[in-house]
Design a protein that fits this description.
Order of helices and strands of chain A: HHHEEEEHHHH
Shape of chain A: rod-shaped
Structural class of chain B: mainly alpha
Strand content of chain A: under 5%
Number of strands of chain A: 4
Helix content of chain B: 55-70%
Largest sheet of chain A: 2 strands, antiparallel
Largest sheet of chain B: 2 strands, antiparallel
Largest interface: A-B, 59 and 66 residues
Oligomer: heterodimer
CATH architecture of one domain in chain A: Up-down Bundle
Number of strands of chain B: 10
Distance between the termini of chain A: 30 Å
Number of helices of chain A: 7
Shape of chain B: rod-shaped
CATH class of one domain in chain A: Mainly Alpha
Strand order of the largest sheet of chain B: 1-4
Number of helices of chain B: 12
Distance between the termini of chain B: 32 Å
């Protein structure tokens, strides 16, 4: 038996088709207006999981970039200060060579000693330099001034290291342990910069033959050794700067790649969506047209 | 020759008139109910009435012949396919269940607000970023405050999401009560079926077929099967015995209703709602998963935060993590350094480095699970709807009123009526000759 088709069936089918077409059209419309393919988890459950993961990664990268920037500021301040200390030490070495020369009288040596003492104060001032209101050479005691000016050469900071996370599981130390370079002066006898400078001043003022020999001998050697050490540390800091700059470039690339992936997962391919939209709109309009014409005629229209 | 009444032909025509009249009435009834939900088209069952046996042969009187006496109306029957009813109810039950699941999951999915700027994942990322910001600036009390605030915002959102889950459960439970409770939808429909059973029984015993009452009862059974599993047994007296949801006693037996009862296999909308809200059901397992996430977050952060002897950053009640999560420290108590120094940032860095780890993954898994369950339910609903439409279409094809068909019948019965009237007129004219003119020769 052939299927009987009733008016109820026709109108219900038309209504179902209209609703289905309208629903498709609305979904595409929403995709186009929001620009996003996934607006709720059920649109694509695994895509949603991926979206959350990628958004987290992106947030992480932007934070790492901030960390890198902060690290660069810190390291630049360190570089500048170490550069200054180097220059002051270089000057001290020149004065030492000059003072060690016997042709200079004691008065001249006293003058040189005073200059050396001024340089020592200069070195300590550089060690007290701040970045963003924090003492960068105080270890993790960033709110404590590392050296008091004057005769006391005691180091007040600690030897803690300050690190910046610059990637997942990657961090870099941005501070320099200044105690390793400056030491704690004559009292400590640690052959570090302050100890040597204090000895140089003492030897310049001493005026004995032994003092002169010290100046020409051990003092010069020790000061040169400190200069070498400073150069080495500055090279390390320079390497850190490079590392941070590389990290910054790498983070840009990673961010770019995550963003591309996120776009692929989450965002609408506009040209595709627009093609779908016009197809669906045609289908909807056709269904509307069908609804207005198909339901109308029946035998009733032809019987008199 | 046995005599045949002179007026028999009139009687035969009268039967024809009556039959055509009944058929026209039925056609009108069909047309009037073309849009009535649950209506089955009706047809008059006509048959030739019992013939009159007459003796033939004028000489020996041994032959007989059957003389037709017209038409009889045997009854009015409805076009209904019981097999399609069974199929329809099975699909209605499936659709009822899946629609209820979709509805509940939709509210849960909406509460997530993922993916987007307002969801928990965004707040979690902000929380990690604030810890990393604090690692850059451990001396800054504003950075400490930011961490505390981000933690509080996260805890509040988790509490809210948990409350939404609880709310969804309460809504579903209220719906269960409205369906299966005393005086609920099931009982209401059962009472109507019982009343119809009574009316149908009296009609059946008096020999007629109460088509419209049967339609109404079938419609109620359709509606009942969207709510849960329905079994129908027809009795000889025309009543149906209705079982519901695997309950021990029939829901409707004759004119008696036995409800509420314990359902063992509810299915349909009721079954889906029970599955969503029961102990160990979907909503509870989602809440457990959310609690697990909240507690995992708190434990991971606390483990690092307490390393240098600091207080726990988060507190919660075990087993109710999402509802009770709270930040337990103020800005001054936030730990950043392993050695208590002002510029150390080991702790803050380590907490920031939790980003992208197990905590983030467990939340993403939670969201993915809700999305996947929702998608499955939606696909199931679409599928059940399509199947139900197909069955409904076939049922409509068997039982629905086609106006073209009714118009055609209207025409043919109308002609039949006219023809019977014409036959009666012809007989009347013949009798007129017999009665008024016969025997008047020469008068």
């Amino acid at each position: 038996m052939t299927m009987r088709i009733t008016e109820g069936m026709t109108s219900r089918t038309v209504l179902q088709d209209l609703t289905a077409n309208k629903a498709k059209l609305t979904k595409t419309q929403r995709e186009i207006s929001s620009g996003e393919r996934i607006t709720k988890p059920s649109d694509d459950p695994f895509g949603t999981g991926r979206t959350l993961q990628l958004s987290g990664e992106l947030e992480g990268f932007s934070q790492y970039k901030e960390n890198v920037n902060d690290g660069v500021g810190w390291v630049t301040a360190t570089e500048t200060a170490l550069n200054q200390i180097s220059q002051l030490t270089q000057r001290a070495r020149e004065l030492l060579v000059q003072g060690g020369n016997d042709s200079n009288g004691q008065v001249a040596r006293e003058g040189i000693a005073a200059e050396i003492e001024a340089l020592t104060e200069g070195v300590k001032q550089e060690a007290n330099v701040t970045y963003d209101d924090r003492y960068i050479f105080a270890g993790t005691e960033t709110e404590t001034r590392p050296y008091e000016l004057g005769a006391n050469d005691e180091y007040r900071g600690n030897e803690g290291s300050i690190v910046r996370a610059i990637g997942t599981g990657v961090s870099v130390g941005v501070n320099v342990n200044i105690k390793e370079i400056l030491g704690e002066g004559a009292g400590a006898g640690d052959n570090k910069l302050l100890d040597v400078l204090r000895d140089v001043a003492t030897d310049l003022r001493g005026g004995t033959e032994e003092n002169s020999e010290n100046l020409r001998g051990t003092d010069l050697e020790r000061l040169s050794a400190n200069l070498d050490e400073l150069t080495r540390v500055r090279a390390v800091v320079g390497a850190t700067t490079n590392r941070l700059e590389n990290a910054s470039t790498r983070l840009e690339q990673l961010e770019e790649s995550s963003l591309t992936q996120l776009t692929k997962v989450r965002d609408v391919d506009m040209s595709e969506a627009l093609v779908h939209y016009s197809t669906e709109q045609n289908a909807y309009e056709a269904a509307l047209k069908a609804a207005s014409t198909i339901i109308q005629p029946s035998l009733l229209d032809f019987l008199k | 020759m046995a005599g045949v009444s002179t007026f028999m032909g009139l009687q035969t025509s009268l039967r024809g008139l009556i039959a055509a009249q009944e058929a026209l009435d039925t056609t009108s009834h069909n047309i009037a109910n073309a849009s009535t939900v649950g209506y089955s088209r009706q047809e008059v069952d006509l048959s030739a009435s019992r013939a009159l046996q007459i003796v033939t042969g004028s000489s020996d009187g041994t032959g007989t012949a059957e003389l037709g006496t017209g038409v009889d109306l045997d009854g009015v029957s409805r076009a209904r396919d019981k097999f399609l009813d069974l199929q329809y109810r099975a699909q209605a039950m499936r659709l009822g269940g899946l629609s209820a699941t979709v509805q509940t999951m939709e509210s849960i999915e909406g509460a997530l607000a993922e993916p987007g700027e307002n969801g928990i994942s965004k707040q979690l990322q902000t929380f990690w970023s604030d810890w990393e910001g604090l690692a850059n600036d451990p001396e800054d009390s504003a950075a400490r405050q930011a961490v505390v605030e981000a933690g509080k915002a996260l805890a509040t959102s988790l509490g809210e999401l948990n409350a939404q889950l609880t709310g969804a459960k309460q809504v579903a439970e209220a719906e269960i009560a409205a369906i299966a409770g005393s005086g609920g939808e099931v009982e209401q429909k059962a009472k109507e079926i019982a009343l119809l059973n009574g009316a149908i029984r009296s009609a059946t015993t008096s020999g007629s077929e109460p088509n419209d009452l049967l339609d109404q009862r079938d419609l109620l059974l359709d509606e009942l099967s969207a709510l849960g599993q329905v079994s129908v047994a027809e009795k000889a007296d025309g009543t149906v015995e209705v079982g519901f949801g695997g309950a021990a006693e029939p829901l409707v037996s004759g004119t008696e209703v036995d409800w509420p009862q314990t359902v063992t296999e509810p299915k349909g909308k009721l079954g889906a709602l029970i599955e969503l809200t029961s102990a160990g059901g979907t909503i509870e397992s989602l809440r457990t998963e959310l609690d697990g996430f909240a507690e995992g977050l708190a434990n991971s952060v606390n483990e690092i935060h307490t390393k240098a002897g600091g207080l726990a950053f988060f507190t919660y009640t075990a087993g109710e993590g999402a509802a009770t999560l709270a930040v337990a420290v103020n800005a001054a108590e936030v730990q950043t350094a392993a050695d208590g120094s002002s510029g150390g940032n080991e702790i803050a860095t380590a907490i920031g480095a939790l980003r992208g780890g197990a905590v983030d993954r467990s939340y993403a898994a939670f969201v993915t699970r809700i999305g996947a369950e929702m998608k499955t339910a939606q696909a199931g609903e679409t599928n059940a709807q399509a199947l139900l439409n197909t069955v409904a279409e076939r049922r409509e094809s068997a039982s629905g009123v086609s106006l073209d068909e009714e118009m055609t019948k209207l025409q043919s019965f109308q002609r039949g009526y006219e023809a019977s009237a014409r036959a009666m007129t012809a007989l009347d004219e013949a009798l007129d000759v017999l009665i008024t003119r016969t025997g008047r020769v020469g008068l």
